[in-house]
Amino acid sequence: MNREQLAVYFIMGSGNTAGRDPLAVLGSALRGGVTCFQLREKGPGALKGEPLADFAAGCRDLCRQYGVPFIVNDDLELAVATGADGLHIGQEDGNAAEIRRRIGNRMILGVSAHDVNEAAAARSAGADYLGMGPVYGTRSKPDARAASGTELITSAKSAYPDLPIVGIGGIREDNAAPVIEAGASGVSVISAIAHAGDPERAARELRQAVREALEPGKVSK
Ligand code: TZP
Ligand code: MG
To answer: Which family would the database say this protein is a member of (predicted)?
Structure first.
């Protein structure tokens, strides 16, 4: 994957869309310009078995239409069965090096990291990018750690400048810029898009905010 594909990294499960059809929300997000998508099916009422496989296939097909990578959170079997472009794992989701061996080098591997030590381990295990956060307070992950601000991105970026980072946690259009300025290649969001009254517009505004922060002065308002 290239860094540009991390610019606006949308994450969603079927329970994140405030009662709306999740595939419709994903379609709107893709029209608005999200550059990557992760299916993260968690929490009460999470789909399993065949309904999950069908939903995943629907997400994959939509992402393909837009040429956007389709990543599966923490379910290697689903990722492989769906022909996903990648897998994202947390620190509790198994050994990253072992998972890299199992998925091979052609699949994208993303790893959540919370400090420079975890970043170093993920990097040597063969992660393509790191998810770092929560940067700001979040209501989308009940077991999230305390918000860390952008500091952890700054320190991981200075230790490993070549390893792409996406910030996560409470990021919206109006607080995305400091995440990019700290060294992230992009922002990953659930609620800023999935809960938005107009997910397409929310995605477009986030994309614009990230673009402006990546190339200050180059983008006209
Ligand atoms: N990991 C750290 S914070 C978070 C995850 C999955 C949730 C991000 O959701 P939101 O709504 O963008 O804060
Ligand atoms: Mg996990």
So the answer is: Belongs to the thiamine-phosphate synthase family.
Q: Tell whether residue 38 is among the known ligand binding residues.
A: yes
Instruction: Determine the distance separating the centroid of ligand 1 and the alpha carbon of 13, expressed in angstroms.
Output: 12
Structure tokens given for 107:
């699949």
pTM score: 0.97
DSSP assignment of 122-142: HHHHT-SEEEE--SS--SS-T
**Domain spans of the chain, in order of start:** 3-213
* Tokens at 17, concatenated: 């869309």
The class of domain 3-213 in CATH terms is alpha beta
Q: Which of 14, 28, 112, 185 is catalytic?
A: 112
- CA nearest to 176, candidates 146, 129, 136: 136
Indicate which residue of 3, 31, 141, 201 is catalytic.
141
